[in-house]
Write a structure and sequence with these properties.
Layout (H helix, E strand, L loop, with lengths): L5 H4 L12 H12 L6 E5 L6 H13 L18 H8 L5 E5 L6 H9 L11 E6 L6 H12 L5 E7 L7 H4 L3 E4 L5 H15 L5 H11 L3 H14 L6 H8 L4 H12 L3 H14 L3 H20 L11 H8 L4 H14 L9 H14 L107 H15 L5 H9 L1 E6 L5 E7 L7 H15 L3 E7 L6 H22 L1 H9 L14
Parallel strand pairs: 1-4, 1-5, 2-3, 3-4, 7-8
Antiparallel strand pairs: 6-7
Helix pairs in contact: 3-4, 5-6, 8-9, 9-10, 9-11, 12-13, 12-14, 13-17, 14-15, 14-16, 14-17, 16-17, 19-20
């Protein structure tokens, strides 16, 4: 007899044997027990989590007749009647599995739906199971919509997909959707131990832990890897053999890297990377194992009692968690996690690994642990210079009794981008030689009422003067009407705004308007024609528009610019005339009002 792989041999044949999908089992079992059956089910989830298995169990539950042939719909199919045995063997005529990846056209779906009009041959229900349903074409989806919405009472649809986002909403709305979750490594490890116990194969817990982690939530992948590990280990599963088969990095390497990071020992980090290169271990696998270790350390730091007492790595994780502050653990985890994406860009993966580890060492928080040491020696790092924000604030000046106190905040400063920060003993770059404040003596300072000073007046904006004319007033009002009524587009609007009306001949038939425009691009025939049509619509009568070249001194655009400049000057003058602002400018000789920071309402 040919060998049957573990994934097929131990495929669950009842809801009780299904592992890791309790939320789906509970919903389906209750629906079957209460006879509240939907006509279409959609099972979603990654590969190997049990979508097809649940479909077969559901088909058996709907068609089971019991050992005596008198049973009905049940949540616990017997597994011995003809319907149950035939469905498990894949030969039940009323249970049809269609692979949409290879049968995605409308012809295949139409052929399947043509058989839906016939009642079941042997079973109680016909069950159509369409796997990877998202692979169907749009026409195929449209062809099945009507039958999917109102199928015959004896027909049930079961759809399965790994990518539900590609399933049309019209199909999703017609189905009950169940999301099968990836299984946790402890759940997978427990199931593998049970399977290997029935097979009579010895396995080390560390080997099962590696297989469960490598499966990444897929039970089928875990059983397939177990088959491979049994063959690799000649019938036994040892942790060293499984680690070698998977190419996994030993936890000891990650532990040594974390210890080197905690000690700020660059030489040890480089030596650890060289050791990994010598063993031929994967740099990506190293960062993955290191990220897993740091994640466990972070959990241990946040919840000390969260560790699994049966896990041999728990004492090691607890020891390492005490070597680093919680913020550094989070920082190292982020560096390692993002470093995995950079390995493909590095000259080779080991140089990329070294740079990721050295980056974690170079950018670790300055106040956490010992200062970082270069790989070549133990040179003592210089103490960081305190930033300006960290300097102690000066004591507030004392005010003699009977005199008013002037409270002034230190002026906000904008540092130009690209300029180096000045040293602690140098004046800031925005302070000129004439503005430097002499050092104060040690005696108490007295704030006296500021003398009237010549506060710099706001600079007048440079805007070309507008020579207002009656024709200009009329033209500006007309242009404003065209814009409000949305009669002009972008370029035609710009033409009207930049134009100066120099003449209007109402005696002509039709009336002739003459505009002067400086920019040649705006004077195109197409723009002039569109503006003429807009003006005729706005005035309600035909007119002739002429445009000449020349400089303008009264246009709607110039009027708007002059109005903005006037409002800006008024706003700046209000700020300069404010008594508090004048007091601050008088007391702090280096204080300035940042140009552009004053905005009119």
């Amino acid at each position: 007899m040919s060998y049957l792989v573990l994934a097929r041999k131990y495929r669950p044949r009842s809801f009780e044997a299904l592992v890791g999908q309790e939320h789906v089992v509970q919903a389906l079992a209750n629906a079957l027990t209460q006879q509240r059956l939907h006509h279409a089910y959609l099972f979603t989830g990654t590969r190997g989590v049990g979508k097809t298995t649940v479909s077969r169990i559901l088909a058996k539950s709907l068609n089971c007749t019991g050992p005596d042939g008198r049973g009905g719909i049940t949540a616990q199919p017997c597994g011995t009647c003809d319907a149950c045995r035939d469905i498990d063997a894949g030969r039940f005529v009323d249970y049809v599995e269609l692979d949409a990846a290879s049968n995605r056209g409308v012809e295949e779906i139409s052929q399947l739906l043509d058989q839906a009009v016939y009642k079941p041959v042997l079973g109680r229900f016909k069950v159509y199971m369409i796997d990877e349903v998202h692979m169907l074409s749009n026409t195929a989806f449209n062809a099945m919509l009507k039958t999917l919405e109102e199928p015959p009472e004896y027909l049930k649809f079961v759809l399965a997909t790994t990518d539900p986002q590609k399933v049309p909403p019209t199909v999703l709305s017609r189905c009950l959707q169940f999301n099968l979750r990836p299984m946790a490594p402890p759940t997978v490890q427990e199931h593998l131990a049970r399977v290997l116990g029935e097979e009579g194969i010895a396995a080390e817990p560390g080997a099962l832990r590696l297989l469960a982690r490598a499966a990444r939530g897929s039970m089928r992948d875990a059983l397939s890897l177990t088959d491979q590990a049994i063959a690799f280990g000649a019938g036994t599963l040892a942790e060293a053999g499984v680690r070698q088969m998977l190419g996994a990095v030993d936890r000891g390497h990650a532990v040594r890297i974390v210890e080197a990071l905690a000690a700020a020992d660059g030489a040890a980090l480089v030596a650890a990377a060289d050791a990994l290169r010598g063993l031929g271990l994967s740099a990506a696998g190293t960062l993955e194992e290191l990220a897993a270790l740091l994640q466990q350390m972070a959990v241990q730091q946040a919840v000390p009692d969260a560790g699994d007492p049966d896990d041999p790595d728990t004492p090691v994780v607890a020891r390492l968690a005490g070597l680093l502050p919680a913020d550094e653990t989070q920082f190292f985890y982020s560096i390692v996690l993002h470093g995995r994406a950079e390995l493909a860009l590095a000259p080779d993966e080991y140089s990329g690994l070294v740079m990721v580890l050295l980056r974690a060492l170079a950018f670790r928080p300055a106040d956490g642990g010992a200062p970082a040491r270069p790989a070549g020696g133990a040179t003592e790092a210089k103490a960081p210079r305190p930033s300006m924000a960290a300097r102690p604030a000066a004591a507030p000046p004392t005010v003699p009794a009977g005199q008013p106190a002037v409270v002034a905040a230190a002026p906000a400063v904008r540092v130009p981008v690209g300029r180096a920060r000045p040293a602690a003993d140098e004046p800031p770059p925005w302070v000129t030689a004439a503005d430097e404040v002499p050092p104060a003596d040690d005696g108490p300072s007295v704030v006296t009422p500021p003398e009237p000073l010549a506060v710099p007046e706001p600079s007048a904006p440079t805007v070309a003067p507008v020579r207002a004319t009656p024709l200009g007033d009329r033209w500006a009002a007309l242009v404003r009407t065209l814009i409000e009524r949305q009669l002009v587009g972008a370029l035609v609007r710009e033409l009207a705004m930049q134009a100066q009306c120099v003449a209007v001949d109402e005696a002509a038939s039709p009336a002739r308007w003459t505009l002067r425009v400086e920019r040649e691009m705006l004077r195109s025939a197409q723009n002039v024609e569109k503006l003429q049509e807009a003006l005729a619509t706005g005035l309600g009568r035909p007119l002739q528009l002429q445009v000449e070249a020349g400089a303008v001194d009264d246009s709607p655009a110039r009027r708007e610019a002059a109005e903005r400049a006037r409002r800006q000057a008024e706003a700046e003058q209000i700020i300069h005339d404010d008594p508090l602002v004048r007091a601050l400018l008088a007391q702090y000789k280096t204080a300035r009002i940042v140009p552009g920071s004053v905005k009119p309402h």
